Amino acid sequence: MDDFDVDLMVLGAGSGGVRAARMAAQRGARVAVAESGPTGGTCVNVGCIPKKLYGHAAHYAEAFEESAGYGWQLGAARLDWGVLKQRRAAELRRLNGVYERLLAEAGVELLRGRARLLGPQQVEVQPDDATAPPRRLRARHVLVATGSRPQRPPIDGAELGVVSDEMFDLPVFPRRLAVVGGGYIACEMASIFHGLGAEVTQLVRGDALLRGFDADIGRVLAAQMQARGVAIRFQAQPVALRRHDGALALQLEDGQAVAADTVLWATGRVPNSADLGLAEAGVALGDDGAVIADPRGATRVPSVHAVGDVTGGPQLTPVALAQAMVLVDRLFGDGGRRFDPALLPTAVFTHPPVGSIGLSEAQAAARHGALRIYETDFKPLKHTLSDSVERCRMKLVVDDASDRVLGLHMVGPDAGEVVQGYAVALGMGATKAQFDATLGIHPTVSEEFVTMRTLSRRVG
To answer: Can you give the pLDDT at residue 10?
Structure first.
């Protein structure tokens, strides 16, 4: 017998930590998880799930308006912000219970408290109950899966604004909302709260939305959000936030100011790696605090591993889940499992939503040279009667030499659902000829990806 208390000690009960703990326990490992907050991490509590629920709520307002084009006559609709918050909170409590039950059924011990390393194979857990003594465990392996947190910009008065974690439970629904940022969280929150009834101004430091996505996607999304009524101001740099006449005044570098009831800082996230004893245990950290780990979750300390947002990679739940599976297979399996982030399907739940997988046009041109681009832009059938301004934009990026589809991008209804299916095809190396040979389901939006025959342009 060894002198370890557990085979795997997991710091954090978010998506990556819970998945790793469960899978390791099912392979016979002795596993414990330390968590000081609600189980499920960012995704369940202040990320993916509440965001999608509030997105559904916002879509009802659009549906009420659009229904008139189909002959429905409805009275004035009014959002009860308190009811929405209560219903969301109840659902999240249910999901917290699901996560706890999954851990218990797998035989994982859940320790309520904050953990930190005392050495490469020793962890101390300070219970949430301040009267209880700390617990120390010797672990054969330690997994850091503590996620990330939103950050405020370093400007005067930044504390007067809120971050995304706080948006779902604001005491009062904001009549005027200023959103600072151009990434997916900023765009989603701007879309959702505009749909719920707020007057939204989005301030973007650069000249485009969704940096890192295909450039056409950001351009089309901006046009669609503006057509719906979101005011987007590019090249806008906040320098201070102050209270003025009972509201907030966001001062900009050009001397102008934006009045708002709530200001949301959607200006990035940083890894939760502070005060965990990582550096003292020999674990290397990046300048932003990210745990430096290889694609299989290994750090430079053989007994310490890391997955998910804390490693500074793509801040997406499916990435953390995939990394967790690779790690468990390496530690407690045959080590053959791999995760390739090159074909990462992504959805942005804006109004309208975005779906994307593979390379952008610019990335593909840099890596492959000659390309063929296929595009289509149309009004979805639903909106031919609804009088909505929404349009759908779809794009295929094809390698001219091999005919392989390198990138697939969409702004339009159910984009995430559509792209999830095509992710299988791109993962298998599908060619444009194979897309062309596939029968479409008519009438659907997704059929457009297999009926685009006319070349839009060549690149390279």
So the answer is: 98
